[in-house]
Amino acid sequence: MDFFDRFAIPHPSPVIYASMVAIGLTVIAIIAGLTYFKKWGYLWREWLTTVDHKRIGIMYLISALLMLFRGGVDAIMLRAQLATPEAKLLDAQHYNEIFSTHGVVMILFMAMPFIMALMNFVVPLQIGARDVAFPRLNALSFWLFFMGAMLFNISFVIGGSPDAGWTSYFPLAGNEFSESVGTNYYMIAIQIAGIGTLMTGINFMTTILKMRTPGMTLMKMPMFTWSSLVANVIIVFAFPVLTVALALGTMDRLFGTHFFTTDAGGLDMLWANLFWVWGHPEVYILILPSFGIFSEIISTFAKRNLYGYKSMVWSMVVIAGYSFLVWAHHFFTMGQGALTNSIFSITTMAIAVPTGVKIFNWLFTLYKGKIEITTPMLYAIHFIPLFTIGGVTGVMLAMSAADYQYHNTMFLVAHFHNVIIPGVVYAMLAGLTYYWPKMFGFMLNERIGKWTVWLLSIGFLLAFMPMYITGLDGQARRMYTYSESTGYGPWNMASFIGAGIMAIGFALIVYNIYYSIRYASRDIGSDPWDARTLEWATHTPVPEYNFAISPQVASIEPFWDSKKKGQELFKGSYEKIHMPNNSGIPFIMGCIFFAWGFSFVFGIWVPLILTTIGIFVCMALRSFEIDHGHYISVDEIEETETKLRGAN
Amino acid sequence: MRELFPAKQVMGFVFSLILTIAALLVYYLDMSFTAGMTLLLITAFIQAGLQLIVFMHAGETKDKGSIYTNIYFGVFVALVTILGTLLCMIWGYI
């Protein structure tokens, strides 16, 4: 039995045992349901083995929504604990575990896959391609992300959650202070998901650079594709640093090396340094595609072309460069001198300039536009002022001298939620609503959608504005309780109520999906929003090959021009189309990676070695496999096209 | 026959051998730390460039532009990361 002791939770509570039972029951229910409805074959053929970018996008989307609720429940628990002074809902250890999980889940397993979802679904359609450059690698990326996320998520019921914060600073994250396997989970789960993300970066960079439809020069690409290109370039250059940092951290924890220890020549500060060399570009990986989504939405619903296309592109390129120059602003108080801090202060403040350019461009696009307030547009309109508040407080934090006051207080927490929620979460929800008809063939209900936006914004203001105040008054982040005499009580209660309102907003999204599945009209055509770019030029549902004939592009908004100026998009006749074959290897490799990660977390060496061999066997199989893909014949294309045209 | 002889590649190979020998001198000769590191850094960067351009054909397709942009950006990020880290952890640390 000694062997199994390691899987016990070091710090149990009834809630965790209840979660264990709930997880067990859910797994049984899923297996039973699949068996009862005879869906195993369908699941395997249509989803687990798929290499279609649209389906991979939808799988990313489902994972992201699930993780949104996982992270959201964590957030509610944190706010509930802080709602009143000296609360006893959670103890210090559980509070630590929950805020660490909340951060990792929301950034890496909610925001990232949400962006990957939209990128996967939209980018190939926007550039008129049939799929991404490396379809099978794309599937592998998804399964690595998914298995990494699952590995991280089981930590709280097997072996213990990570509890050193989402930044996992050493020496706290070292063996001396984090004795449970929690931080091993952190190191290895993020490593697996991170490798997947790195592959996506390479894949999409290649796709956008090499697979654009004839006539689409770089400066004729839609804004979301541009933002994705820049974000993927940042991924390719930033993620290797994370990979290295996590590998060094893993070695410190499992093999007794001294990279980040305080003795034997280690340098604990180096972890914080490396973490943020990746971490700050990561912020822009999240925000740039979000900006891209808003650009698409604002130009569609203002019925105008995007103001200042070139300055939009250049501001993103400049942001991509700057994003690698500012990381030390995350640890101004670590002990560097005034010169170092000043350098990083100035670079940080400089980033506000290109970001400001973008804000003004959106405002000028709206100016004199024929604005139509739909749900996605409402998100965009709420985003501009809310995000600007976050940006301004960011400039406050950027002043290194002043930062000594704000550092690690609730002020900081308010700031980054203030940029990430309106910036990233609103963009993703807006994108979800905007692209939903293209993905699923019906629209989400507008009335419920607008209620959601208002509830989220009101809840958001109520939840986070008080934190600016308590933060300036000195309430530290990550403290699990405070005394009544501090006077933080009422403000934190307001935050809790705000968090509750946001929770209702998120629940409404689920209700909206349910309601729209039941009642929404399926007769919406392929262009329900009267949009401007290529993804709306193909049918809904999008056929496997995206476009029967590759579109010919002559402007930034080819679809709009084809509708208004009669520009011809599809010239020529059908030809047979070459498509990649499905493959089970990415999924199997993902499963092996999961087992690899699990063995690594607990240091069970024999399975670790076996799974490592398994991974290499999968790669070798792929290398020696002869797979030329398949052709879709002209007859088949004609049949599909006639059928889809009939449906419109 | 002259067109068939891969003169550029052979020259590249010889040159990369010379660079390797130059780098090895650091081990065999008794140099100061600074001289050794300078020699290693210079030969390493020339070697990497040589490999990319001569043997990995970086400049031979019409993707030349994107390939070089990526390489320059990579060099920029690497230099910024290393110099910035030294600035934070050593030079600028009190």
Automatic annotation (TrEMBL), chain A:
Pfam families in alphabetical order: COX1
UniProt similarity note: Belongs to the heme-copper respiratory oxidase family.
GO CC annotations, alphabetized: plasma membrane; respiratory chain complex
Molecular function terms from GO: copper ion binding; cytochrome-c oxidase activity; heme binding; oxidoreductase activity, acting on diphenols and related substances as donors, oxygen as acceptor
Keywords: Cell membrane, Copper, Electron transport, Heme, Hydrogen ion transport, Ion transport, Iron, Membrane, Metal-binding, Oxidoreductase, Respiratory chain, Translocase, Transmembrane, Transmembrane helix, Transport
TM region positions: 15-37, 58-78, 98-125, 137-158, 185-209, 229-249, 283-301, 313-331, 343-364, 376-399, 419-436, 448-469, 489-514, 579-598
Enzyme Commission designation: 1.10.3.-
Cytochrome oxidase subunit I profile domain span: 38-554
Organism from which the protein derives: Peribacillus deserti
Subcellular location(s) per record: Cell membrane
Name of the protein described by the UniProt record: Quinol oxidase subunit 1
UniProtKB/TrEMBL annotation, chain B:
GO molecular function ontology, one term from the record: oxidoreductase activity, acting on diphenols and related substances as donors, oxygen as acceptor
EC number(s) on file: 1.10.3.-
Catalytic reactions on record: 2 a quinol + O2 = 2 a quinone + 2 H2O
Transmembrane segment boundaries: 12-29, 35-59, 71-93
Membrane topology: Multi-pass membrane protein
Family in the record: Belongs to the cytochrome c oxidase bacterial subunit 4 family.
UniProt protein name: Quinol oxidase subunit 4
